[in-house]
Amino acid sequence: MSDKVLLDYGSGGRASQRLISELFLKYLGNDELNRLNDAAELAMSGRLAMSTDSFVVDPIFFPGGNIGSLAVHGTVNDVAMMGAIPRHITCAYIIEEGLPMDDLEQIVAAMGKAAEEAGVTVVSGDTKVVPKGAVDKIFINTTGIGDIIVDPAPSGDAAKPGDAVLISGTVGDHGLTILGTREGLDFEARVESDSASLNHLLIKLVEGLPEVHVLRDPTRGGLATTLNEITSSSNVCCELIESDLPIKAEVKGGCSILGLDPLYLANEGKFLCILPQEHADKALEIMRADPLGAGACQIGTMTDANPGKVVLVTPLGGKRLLGMLEGEQLPRIC
Fold first, then answer.
1. N or C of the chain: less Cβ packing under 10 Å?
2. Where are the beta strands (DSSP E) in the chain?
3. Whole-angstrom Cα distance, residue 240 to residue 243?
């Protein structure tokens, strides 16, 4: 193959077949994908969770991952937030002509490794190559499907007054990492994306607890925006305790310099768990037993005081509203 991606690789002819066989099947191949049918044959039944997402992150390589691993993590996590075991994903690559073949191989290899670690198989895919300038390097679309194993499934409209609001770890890591890498910023301490598949931890959580009302990953728009979505759907109020919010010192410092609010920065390896207060200690025990939940803590409570609002309680006892993010604080973070 050439050392750069050529338009020929999207032609459907011999060049396309070489790209598929020598690269994609090398890292993503399995019994179903290797058949190269027009569609995958899957044996699934019962209640299913399905999610689709597109990844356009800039830059495509960043500390803690790249667009290939991120595409798997993002879709696997979305399916798992429904109390489901992710089983299969599809992937579609839209590649700019001229992308270095070494870059593409690193991305596909990272996707294969992330899928293996998450325990999902890539069962179908597509590759398109477009002229230089038609896209920015590479875009990836993924769809995931899995078996829902709890009834009722966690849902964004199921939060109740009195529920505990838990977070699995520090917030803002991914968003600040992407900005720092994109702009070539040199922070005093290394900042790294938290991109990871959370499904194995989430399965332990829903299987170990009698009731989980909401599971959500606070990606675009960050923690504050995601909580606004939940309070609006559930018609409850979320009171956050500012002193309990887990934010790394380096993220606080970077945000202070850049004028950003870490509560609105994206996360790609954290999740919110909202459940009855009486189950909070058990949930935290399960979360902290896993490396991906080692920093889990309770950050607030759901109330009926101001339905649809998110209220931040400051260390001095004051209160301020955290509104929904109006625009994109930082575009192309996933």
1. N
2. 48-55, 61-62, 65-66, 84-96, 121-130, 138-148, 163-167, 214-216, 237-241, 272-276, 297-303, 310-313, 319-321
3. 9
How far from 243 is each of 139, 155, 228, 247, 275, CA to CA, in Å?
39, 27, 19, 10, 21
Rounded to a whole number, what is the distance in angstroms from the first to the last CA of the chain?
Answer: 29
Domains of the chain: 7-148 (3.30.1330.10), 163-321 (3.90.650.10)
Compute the Cα dihedral for 239, 179, 89, 52 and give only its sign. Answer: positive
Task: Read off the pLDDT of residues 88-114 as tens digits, 9 standing for 90 and up.
Answer: 999 999 999 999 999 999 999 999 999
- Contact between 85 and 126 under an 8 Å Cβ cutoff? The reply is no
Q: Using one digit for the tens of pLDDT, what is the confidence trace for 293-304? A: 999 999 999 999
Cis peptide before 59 (omega within 30 of 0): yes
- Per-residue pLDDT for 328 more than 70? no
8 A C-beta contact, residue 300 and residue 228: no
Tell me which amino acid residue 176 is: L
105-to-4, 22, 144, 236 alpha-carbon distances in Å: 11, 10, 22, 47
For the segment 173-178, the average pLDDT, to the nearest whole number, is 96
Distant-in-sequence, close-in-space partners of 272: CB < 8 Å, separation ≥ 6:
165, 166, 167, 168, 214, 215, 216, 217, 218, 223, 226, 227, 230
| 127 close to 140: Cβ distance less than 8 angstroms | no
pLDDT at 269 over 90: yes
Tell me which residue of 268, 300, 317 sits closest to 309, measured CA to CA.
300
Rounded distance between C-alpha atoms, residue 177 and residue 174, angstroms: 5
Read off the pLDDT band of 12 (50, 70, 90): confident
Check residue 45 and give its pLDDT. 84
**For helices 199-208 and 67-80, angle between their N-to-C axes, nearest 10 degrees:** 10
Band of pLDDT at residue 255, cut at 50, 70 and 90: very high
What are the E-state strand segments in 12-170? Answer: 48-55, 61-62, 65-66, 84-96, 121-130, 138-148, 163-167
Contact 198, 271 (CB under 8 A): yes
